[in-house]
């Protein structure tokens, strides 16, 4: 059995659609440059209000990945 080492990055995903979409965008974009994504943790969720409506979602997401052996 070998031990594994993990690293994590913190990114902010955005969306005009939903909080879930903001999280998905963060993970999708991170996966373009980082291999082996393993888990995520939503650190903060916030949004921009225009009038009485949510105009924009922002999700701060910590994403973990395993370092190559």
TrEMBL record:
Spell out the Gene3D superfamilies in the cross-references: Flavin-binding protein dodecin
Question: What is this protein called in UniProt?
Answer: Dodecin
């Amino acid at each position: 059995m070998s031990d594994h080492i993990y690293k994590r990055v913190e990114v902010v995903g955005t969306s005009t659609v939903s909080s879930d979409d903001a999280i998905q965008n963060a993970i999708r974009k991170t996966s373009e440059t980082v291999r082996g994504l393993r888990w995520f943790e939503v650190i903060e969720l916030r949004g921009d209000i225009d009038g009485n409506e949510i105009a924009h979602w922002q999700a701060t997401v910590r994403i973990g990945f395993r370092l190559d052996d």
